[in-house]
């Protein structure tokens, strides 16, 4: 089958642009916005060769994996739009649960928050884990269009058939975990789950419920973490995310620290030091 949108998504005015291969779905989405696209456009591919992750890191997508970007054009403030990353995480977790049959995964990589607690967990701020290993990443990028309009590219990359082996953290793919789901099937479920979670988010008015749902799937909640922030490593217990979805930890002195951006490490890495 090819890529298709869920009927709920079509009924809400979303459109689809599918490719066999692209440079970057995020870059293409922002290009469409600058050319006048009104948004609500999904751009998808099973291969991209110049994708990006957080902090400019490369994120290649070999054939068979899923690269998807939703372009939204909004007049709202960027602070509220930034919380769409949590909407995307919830939508992807819902889609994975719908598209991947129940059953125990074939392997349980080390280094996560405790294998078996949930099949898919959300790691602050933008990863989806499967039994402790990174399965997917989310990247939001924006571009000011003028006249109080802004383009938001919600990029989602999923390791469906392959995962990188040259990264400093555990990674996995659906295939490595014993699942037979294809990129097209997962995207169909994702487009449906996005509509449901975006309605709940309600332009930011429903962020309290999004936060509650996100925390119910949070990886490492209540455990020791190490967070690399601007070259420094902060350690403590992951307590919650606040009303603005910032990471909140309590350090060894009992002080509460709120972190807006950083790289989070769990388990043995948190104890020994964040690489």
Automatic annotation (TrEMBL):
PANTHER family: BIOTIN PROTEIN LIGASE, BIOTIN--PROTEIN LIGASE. GO terms for cellular component: cytoplasm. Coiled coil: none annotated. The keyword Lipid metabolism does not apply. Residues 1-202 form the BPL/LPL catalytic domain. This is biotin--[biotin carboxyl-carrier protein] ligase. Its EC number is 6.3.4.15. It holds the Pfam family BPL_LplA_LipB. Keywords: ATP-binding, Biotin, Ligase, Nucleotide-binding. The keyword Chloroplast does not apply. It comes from Mesorhizobium alhagi CCNWXJ12-2. One of its GO terms (molecular function) is ATP binding. It comes from the Bacteria. It catalyses: biotin + L-lysyl-[protein] + ATP = N(6)-biotinyl-L-lysyl-[protein] + AMP + diphosphate + H(+).
